[in-house]
Amino acid sequence: MTNLLSNAFKYTPENGQIEVSVYRDEQKLVLKVINTGEGIDENLLPAIFDRYHILENMNENMYTEISTRNGLGLFICKSLVEALQGSITVQSSKDTYTEFIVTLPVLEGTLSQVEDETPEAVFIPSAVSKEETTEEDKPVILIIDDNKDILWLISKELSSTYNVKEATNVEDAFSILEKVLPALIITDIIMPEINGLEFITRLRANKFTKHIPIVVVSAKISDTEQAEGINIGADAYLTKPFSPIVLHSIVNRLIINKKELKDYFYSPESAYDYTQGQVVHQEDRTFLDMVTRIIEENLEKENLRPEFIADEMGINTRNLYRRFKKISSLSPSDFIKDYRFSQAARLLVTTNLNVQEIIYKVGINNKSYFYREFQKKHGVTPREYRQRQ
Length: 389
Known about the structure:
Oligomer: single chain
Order of helices and strands: HEEHEEHHEHEHEHEHEHHHHHHHHH
Distance between the termini: 46 Å
Shape: elongated
Strand order of the largest sheet: 6-5-7-8-9
Mean pLDDT: 81
Radius of gyration: 30 Å
């Protein structure tokens, strides 16, 4: 009834008429919703309940300028009615009226079963957090869909756990991205002007947004269309109609995965693997572990040089250089430098220390040198790096 009445209001012109009737016909309940207006072409009536078909003359309401995807809602209506062993039909006359008729049979009651169920177990998704948090504490989720009903549905499901931002088109989405970098993005594919696939392509081409998890929620449901979305850069692809609970679980898992990966790559344990990018033998790994531990424990010392590391390890400097040449493309001096700036990047995103404090934490006393080398390694200034992360 909610869907049928909503459609009636959307497609009834000013000073038009909507009629709703409910009556019993022998052992059946009959519901009718009639609205005056432009009606539906006769050749389109067979597809009115088809989930794959979007009526051409219903993409934009000529009276209220409300964008919609009407075919999906009517498909859901039909599914619900058939689940109740009923039927739904439509009659329409072009430029005159449209009438939906729902017929439901009398069924045996199941009240006792309903009473035995716990409401919370039925209606509250297990993924929803019960902790009270402020909007500032919640990760930001950006949703892009030109269907305002879908925006409302997804926002309603996620807003208890996340700080939800909404956009009805890609241009608005990019305006939001200029102000805040979300933890995850949910996007439709079929949108006016710039579609979802182009939006994902542009995100993945930008070094500041390429790491953001993306979930597609779309009425394009063929295997080929889903594969295209995944291949172009989506992390998950849900088809409409979708389960809000499943969507919530996917969002939770992608954000947790992102955090776990980020924590690993910013941990001291991963510093040399992340820098070197090559497999080493266990003996060489133990050697690098020892070097990394010495660097970590003495990072604030300005005189942290290869000679100091060699003394701490009980070997001469020549042997230290020989071992590094065998297992690393970096010299001991470059290895120390790379570690300093990797740690500086980690401190920028895991602490509230200002840049000057971080410079001292990583054992550098020349501010201009730090800024120059940091930008050379990470492609942005320390301030920009902190904001983007």
